Amino acid sequence: MMATIFTALQGVQERIADACLRNHRESSGVVLLAVSKTFPSSDIRALYLTGQRNFGENYVQELIEKHAALSDCKALVWHFIGPLQSNKTRSVAELADWVHSIDRLKVVERLSAQRPEHLPDLNVCIQINVSGEVSKSGISPDECLELASKICQLPRIKLRGLMCIPEASRDAVHLASQFKILRNLQSQLMSHDITLDVLSMGMSSDLEIAISEGSTLVRIGTALFGSRTTKPSDTPPN
Ligand SMILES: *Cc1c(COP(=O)(O)O)cnc(C)c1O
After folding, report:
1. Average pLDDT of the chain?
2. pLDDT > 70? residue 238
3. Please, are residues 212 and 22 in contact by the beta-carbon 8 Å criterion?
4. Ligand 1, from 54, 81, 218: best to mutate by most atoms within 8 Å of Cβ?
5. Which residues get modified to N6-(pyridoxal phosphate)lysine (predicted)?
6. Is there a domain that residue 231 lies in?
7. C-beta separation of 108 from 151 below 8 A
8. How many angstroms does the Cα of residue 78 sit away from the middle of ligand 1?
9. Ligand 1 pocket member 221 (CB < 6 A)
10. Which residues fall within 8 angstroms of residue 71, CB to CB, at 6 or more apart?
11. Dihedral angle over CA of 201, 207, 210, 215, nearest 10
12. Strands (E), the chain
């Protein structure tokens, strides 16, 4: 079973390297975030021991449990990528290195207030709803500048980038056009002196398109760990 994970990791690393090559980019410019939600700490540890450092979780309870189980893995970088309710921010402020799913000022204000003094600033990305689907989290692109400006004022928070989950599609052009929205927003913010170095976009099925549109971090679950059959038993979706 571990052999499967290692083969999968190699396969994903090759897909990233190939996509970078085709787009004349350095593969060091694309971070692989292993999305380990619903999979056990032992899988994370196995990948960690091969040198994989960045792991993503969607549920606060899972983050708490896995963080405790892997506290000896000192170089492990935890990314919280799921919807975050304002009454659950404290654990994330204490345990995560990154939060990708910021879509409300209130949530990031709480993270700022609750980030422990002894830890480095919490890295955050604003989640943008690039498809306009009502079911999707994230703010609309035209709200981004205002939220970004406010986040930049908050202590103990470092605004690093933008994140999106596009509308699923087999149409590469449709996917690319959604990823382009993130890149254009990044330029728009830049013209207002807000410099972001991360575009968190691309998942198992579309990482090549995301990289061709400028992704600097791909969030990969299924292609590494296999398909998710269960939700964490004691955790409602949050
Ligand atoms: C689950 C999840 C992923 C991983 O998706 P796969 O298609 O399994 O690679 C990426 N980003 C977010 C926000 C997720 O919730």
Report:
1. 95
2. no
3. yes
4. 81
5. 37
6. no
7. yes
8. 15
9. yes
10. none
11. 60
12. 31-35, 54-57, 77-80, 98-102, 122-128, 157-164, 198-200, 217-220
